[in-house]
What does this fold into?
Amino acid sequence: MSTEYSYQDVAEHNTKKDLFVVIHDKVYDCSKFVDEHPGGEEVMLDVAGQDATEAFEDVGHSDEARESLATLLVGDLKRQVCAPSTLVCDNSSFVHN
Ligand code: HEM
It folds into this structure.
């Protein structure tokens, strides 16, 4: 079974040396990749510890980029189901009933 991370777990890895991102509900450890990123480290630091799906897809990354992404996979995002009435609900982990 693969490791599951909550969005809060991922959020703790938000520095250059310890950098996790979420892309399409998968968790990636990009700590070692930041320096190699052809798009620069700045954009990676912007999404450190966050959901980077939109940023990643907006750029239109190549298949090669998706392959390097696959090598950085560390686990799945554990989605939290919130009741519709729940006010304290992180958008990124909201699941519609
Ligand atoms: C997290 C995993 C990521 C991986 C594995 C990755 C990988 C790559 C690779 C291999 C390239 C070279 C071009 C290509 O093959 O498409 C690239 C370019 C680029 N990436 Fe990423 N990327 C990641 C995240 C991001 C994020 C979150 C952004 C945010 C905007 C971003 C922005 C860019 C930009 C702007 C370029 C173009 C650089 C240029 O051609 O001057 N990347 N990336």
Notes: The helical segments are 7-11, 41-46, 53-59, 63-71.
